[in-house]
Amino acid sequence: MDRSRLYLPNGYANMAEILSCPTPFIVCIGGRGTGKTYGALREVLTSDPLPRFGLLRRSQTQIDIITKPDFNPAGPLNRDLGLNIVTAPVSKYTGAFYHGNEEGRPTGPALGYLFALSTFGNIRGFSAELDLVIYDEFIPESTARPIKDEGAALLNLYESLNRNRELDGRPPLKMLLLSNTNDLNSPILQALGVLDLCDRMARKNQWYGVSRSDMVTVIRLQDSPISERKKKTVLYRLQNEDFERMALGNAFSRDNYDHVRPQPLQEYRPLVTVAGVTCYEHRSGEGRYYVTRAGAAAETYDDTPSEIKRFRAQWGWLWLENLGGRVWFSDAASRLAFQTIFC
């Protein structure tokens, strides 16, 4: 992808260019208000012919809200382009975009569908053929409620929508995942196998990367012209450094790197291996611990629920050591794996 085409002349993200990436999954992470959602919806709601698409959000509450007229995500497009696109419920768990009549009521066939990751498994009989799913705000804010097995839920959703199209010789379903840089410790990034890639790109200030599987493109909206202009607005003149780093600087939360620092492994002895990570104790006996995906211990637990339960019963004190700030991690992926085991 040509970096010179990453932004439109008006400074907003060029979502047509981003959607042209050939990989089935495209992860686009950027600061607030950089035009990610607006640009993606503009592409799918104004193209000719219209693609068959779905807009995915994390929770059913979010879907219920955006089917209300005042929270219609196509509202800015209606205002800017003179359109009349409305949203309305289709069933208990789904909604859709429609052309609206003069009274603002839906007319004609659905232009695209709305559904939530948390409740997609409850949908029965959803037979619409989709070419694109836009997963908006896939990294939640810190106050959002977690979804159980969130990464697996996304992969199951993709399997359900993709069906057997590849076996029939058709292109796979494309998924565009959009988010602000709230939290690197995302189960979705982990499920897609790009947590390490995102971590490395953040550390090296890189804007573009492709996963080892060649299935996922990651784009970070670095040096956004819109973010630069927003620095002069009232909110950012408050100079809340952490918020500004996330909202404008496209930097993940500092919490992602709390106690994340590679340690000399020879200074530690292995205690236990669980779900692919090994916990070590410092040889000095001073009560310092290290978690990494490198090496293995004699005592091992796999990632099944029963084994995780056994591990917690025997080694639960390691979580207390972590809360006390005595556990270090080799990288963000090891930190997330450790947290997932206990939380």
Ordered list of secondary-structure elements with their pairings:
Elements: H1 15-19, E1 25-29, H2 36-46, E2 53-57, H3 60-66, H4 75-81, E3 85-89, E4 95-100, E5 106-116, E6 132-136, H5 150-162, E7 174-179, H6 187-191, H7 195-204, E8 208-210, E9 216-220, H8 225-230, H9 241-247, E10 268-274, E11 277-282, E12 289-292, E13 300-301, H10 305-315, H11 317-323, E14 327-329, H12 332-342
Strands, total number: 14
CATH architecture of the largest domain: 3-Layer(aba) Sandwich
* Number of distinct helices: 12
Distance between the termini: 38 Å
SSE ordering: HEHEHHEEEEHEHHEEHHEEEEHHEH
Neighbour order of strands in the largest sheet: 3-4-5-2-6-7-1-9-8
- The CATH topology label of the largest domain is Rossmann fold
Mean pLDDT: 88
The 3D shape can be described as elongated
The helical percent reads 25-40%
Query: Largest beta sheet, briefly?
Result: 9 strands, mixed
For this structure, what is the CATH class of the largest domain? Alpha Beta
Backbone structural class = alpha/beta
The domain tally reads 2
